[in-house]
Amino acid sequence: MISQNFGDENRLGIVVSGSLTKGVEVKLDPGISVEDMVVGRYVTIEGEKRHFFGTITEVSLEAIDPKIAVAPPDISDPFIAEVIAGTTVYGKLRVLPHLTLGSDATSILEGPQPVKTVPAHFSVVKLASPRDVELVFGSEDERQFYIGTPLDMETKVCLDVKKFVERSNGVFGKSGTGKTFLTRLLLIGILQKQAAVSLVFDMHSEYGWEGQDERGHKVKGLKQLFQSRVAIFSLDEESSRRRRVNTDFIVKIGYDEIEPEDIELLRQTLNLTEASVQAIYQLAREFGERRWLERLLDLKDEEETKQLVSKLNIHESTYRNLRRGMENLRRFPFLVPQAPDNSVRRILEYLDRGINVILEFGRYEDYAAYILVANLLTRRIHTRYREKMERAMGEDLARPRPLVITIEEAHRFLNPELSAQTIFGLIAREMRKYNVTLLVIDQRPSAIDEEVISQLGTKITCLLDNERDIDNVLTGVPGKSELKVVLSKLETKQQALIFGHAVPMPVVIKTREYGSAESYREFVSPRLADRGQRLETDDLWG
Amino acid sequence: MTWGNVETLVKIGEVIEASGSQFVAQCYKLHQPPPLGSLVKTKEGSIEIYGVVFNAETHSLEPGRRPIARGSEEPGGEDVFQANPQLAKLLTTDFGALVVGYREGGELCHYLPPRPACIHSFVYLCPLEEVEDFSHSLDFLPLLVETNLPMPVDEVIAACFRYFSQAHADRRTFLVKAGKELALLLGGELKRLNSILRKLK
Ligand SMILES: Nc1ncnc2c1ncn2[C@@H]1O[C@H](COP(=O)(O)OP(=O)(O)O)[C@@H](O)[C@H]1O
Ligand SMILES: [Mg+2]
Q: H or E element: which one contains A114?
């Protein structure tokens, strides 16, 4: 009834219908303009017995009579327009409830719980207040890292970083939407809360030392902010030197370290035929896993080649295809017949000391280099982690520090053809069995194996506009069709939808600012103002 | 504030016909009925019954005896009555009111009273303060919207809104609120809604 008192300025309307799976429909109060309603905003619903917390997933215009479209009222008259708004025509929202909070003592202690029912008819719907948001997303503390703010709100949305690193995670979004900036934040969060140690395969050399924003302004990398806790490894000494990067180690990889499996993953990238790949395994059997590449590249004279080819019964064209592919690897100066030092061991030493390792690729921003190196190193590091973990369990020793491995262009490793073979597919699937998880970054999630995507614990996705990408990212997520709308309506930059393991419910954020002097200060010495302070639940919903 | 202190109000007429939902009153003064849409009240024992004026009529007191035109020789209209003083005694002005609520023991109700008004009860025109008090709630609106009258009820509704709005300091806010109530009641009857709203300026 109009004559009711709408004294509460946060009130939006009342629940008129709905279901658990599709969300509830909310009729907007007459004074509320649909134009002020934004998909992704938080609302609370005051049910009879419990409060609900949810997001707006759809805004629509309704009329009590469809004839109104044929004979529209005279809205050029402001008086008539005002009368009509909210009565004859009205706005409607669809709200997807995500969490509930009961009002009895036990439910208050338990905190917000997943929804199992819907609010009663005519329950009042309000914009969530900052305190509601804080109750749900917590405030910064030893585990919670401030990752952004909800739309149109000043409060903080926090990510439970300790939970985050328990599973493999993904950062998605079109090019230029803020994946790299977000990932920097996540890496800082992991570092700051000491939840894990990171190994970053930094294809574009933008995490370690410094990066750029769109306007070409420099932004600091992790090492500039956390000198003693970040080490920069480089594949390209010259480039690092030119950029005045303070490198800790120059990575060289010996031919003897490259196994047939490492090349198999490069099949597409190096244009190798299936027969060539088979030939590699034959060569490895012939010369041994550690010698085959060197021997192959050393074959100089025709005679020697002919002999080998006929001995192994390799077709002439296969040999040429293989040889061409392998010659391609020669252009990488970081590949040497014999490496002076063991990069894997060095990386592990740093990681063991709790120092985060960022491997810059310098000028070798090339998929062949990236896939080869990331796979090769990760395979060995994973093996070592597995050994340590098994020993730790058997002998009751301390477990190795949780390790998060960050890879970009993840679909190159995790597409449906490769994901079953690569180490990355394995890590994504085995969860955190050996304390190793992934942070995958990708702009084309549809190219990633669906099974891998569904294993990711927390997904953070910036704007995606390709239907298939959106579908894949949301595989198996409750409320998928609603989140789809939310996802496609994100701003083109610095906004993201987070859902999964490390947040209590899906949340759209404006990503925390990265790049101002103020932001750096906060990263290095966070003010945990409300550390340890627990809010009175009564107050929050009161 | 107390309303209904009838001693201080001037009576304008007397009930001559009454049913549960309407009453008809005869005016004490010829040709001076309360305005269309205004709020009047009458008493039934301890109950004060409120009505909205929906019609007024001046006619001959004796049924079957029709007035005849007499003014052809007179320069002005008044003069017909001056020249024929007996005429005023032969004619009378009645008005009809739709019952829209009642007050009993200080409590205001926006629905029909338990009994109709008594014949010969006095009828008073409510002062604007009382109109304002009465129209804080518009719950009586269905009584107007759903009635069957021998005249266009939408005119009555529009007149009532205009009249009541004068009692409110913020006239427009009242009209918007009343308009919205009406829009809800009329549902899909857009044409009707539109035409009433246009009469609310
Ligand atoms: N959290 C943020 N703080 C400041 N600027 C940001 C943030 N997120 C995105 N931007 C802006 O958006 C641009 C694109 O972000 P970037 O992370 O490079 O996109 P992507 O990696 O998805 O291609 C950046 O250059 C920067 O100007
Ligand atoms: Mg990027």
A: strand A113-114
Note whether B172 contacts A67, CB cutoff 8 Å: no
Between A21 and A92, the more confident residue is A92
Query: Which one is predicted more confidently, A476 or A445?
Result: A445
In chain B, which residues have their Cβ closer than 8 Å to the Cβ of A3? 137-139, 177, 181
Which residues 154-173 in chain B show a CB within 8 A of chain A?
172
pTM for the complete prediction?
A: 0.73
Number of domains in chain B: 1
Q: Where are the alpha helices (DSSP H) in A69-213?
A: 78-84, 105-110, 130-137, 161-164, 179-192
Domains of chain A: 11-128 (no CATH), 170-252+340-529 (3.40.50.300), 262-330 (no CATH)
- Given a contact cutoff of 8 angstroms between Cβ atoms, the answer to whether A371 and A248 are in contact is no
- What band does A164 get if pLDDT is binned at 50, 70 and 90? very high
Closest CA to A214 of A178, A188, A174: A178
DSSP 8-state symbol, A232: E
Domain housing B70: 3-198
The total of other beta-carbon atoms located within 10 Å of residue A76's CB is 7
Ion ligand 2: protein residues whose beta carbon lies under 5 Å? A 180
Helix, strand or coil, per DSSP, at residue A228: helix
pLDDT of residue A81: 85
Q: What is the pLDDT of residues B76-92, one digit of tens each?
A: 656 788 888 888 888 99
A77 neighbourhood in chain B, CB within 8 Å? 197-198
pLDDT at position A536 is: 37
**Residue entry with tokens 């690569």:** A422
B6 vs A396, residue with greater confidence: A396
- CA–centroid distance, residue A158 to ligand 1 (Å): 19
Q: What is the rounded average pLDDT of the residues A495-522?
A: 92
Q: What is the DSSP string of A18-56?
A: EETTTEEEEEEPTT--GGG--TT-EEEEE-SSEEEEEEE
Identify any residues that bridge with B58 across adjacent strands, giving them in sequence order.
B93
Q: Is the pLDDT of residue A534 over 70?
A: no
CA of A430: how far to CAs of A98, B76, B194, in Å?
28, 107, 67
Regarding predicted confidence, which is higher, A7 or B189? Answer: B189
Nearest to A332 by CA among A298, A359, A366: A366
User: Is residue B109 within 8 angstroms of chain A, CB to CB?
Assistant: no
Q: Which amino acid is at A501?
A: H
- For a pocket test of ligand 1, which of A156, A188, A493 has the largest count of ligand atoms closer than 8 A to its C-beta? A493
Mark yes or no for CB contact A68/B187 under 8 Å: no
Rounded CA separation A495/A486 (Å): 11
User: Which pLDDT value is given to residue B159?
Assistant: 97
CA of A469 relative to ligand 2 center, distance in Å = 17
B52 touches chain A (CB under 8 A): no
pLDDT digits (tens, 9 = 90+) for A95-117: 999 888 776 777 666 777 888 88
CA dist., res. A309 & res. A322, Å (int)? 12
Q: ipTM, 2 decimals?
A: 0.84
For residues A385 and A370, give the distance between their C-alpha atoms in angstroms, rounded to a whole number.
22
Which pLDDT value is given to residue B6? 61
Pairing of strands A507-511, B11-18: unpaired
Nearest to A495 by CA among A141, A55, A176, A165: A176
